[in-house]
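Dear colleagues,

For the upcoming journal club I promised to circulate an example of a predicted protein-ligand complex. I picked one with flavin-adenine dinucleotide because it came up in last month's discussion. The inputs are reproduced below in full, followed by the predicted structure.
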Amino acid sequence: RIREDCPLDKDQLGYQTWGLLHTIAAYYPEKPTADEEREMKTFFMLLGKFYPCESCARDFSSLLKLRPPATSSQRALAGWLCWVHNHINQKLGKPQFDCSRLDERWRDGWDDGSCD
Ligand code: FAD
């Protein structure tokens, strides 16, 4: 059973971090300034440096080198992050997420109204 007043294990940390990251991507500007683009790239680079699971952080940093954050628009960033998460899902033997449903999952709620 998950206790909310205990330190996070690797899976809890991952689940909650993805929640934050996908929500940030869902609300990133449609037309970011050059500063916002640069800062978002730095944000992910620092996450790769300080993410408190050493092997996760190492793999994530390599992934960032392979495919740097796409920061040109909200859609680009959210799509890039979906690709990154799916890459990690594949590594962990988890199902692939359908990236065409990103807005429903992370911003608007499912089309069937189940989040209303
Ligand atoms: P999670 O993978 O945490 O997903 C949470 C929710 O996100 C899902 O329920 C789904 O609704 C949604 N989702 C799933 N895929 C996508 C997608 N592609 N796009 C958008 N939404 C999606 N764990 C390890 O064991 N080894 C690692 O190397 C590792 N590296 C990680 C690196 C990072 C940067 C992060 C944030 C986490 C990492 N984790 C790693 C943790 C791992 O990814 C999972 O968070 C953890 O295993 C819990 O998985 P989960 O099944 O609860 O769902």
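Two points we might discuss: Helices lie at 10-26, 34-50, 54-66, 74-92, 102-108. The CA atoms of residues 60 and 66 lie 10 Å apart.

See you all on Thursday,
B. R.
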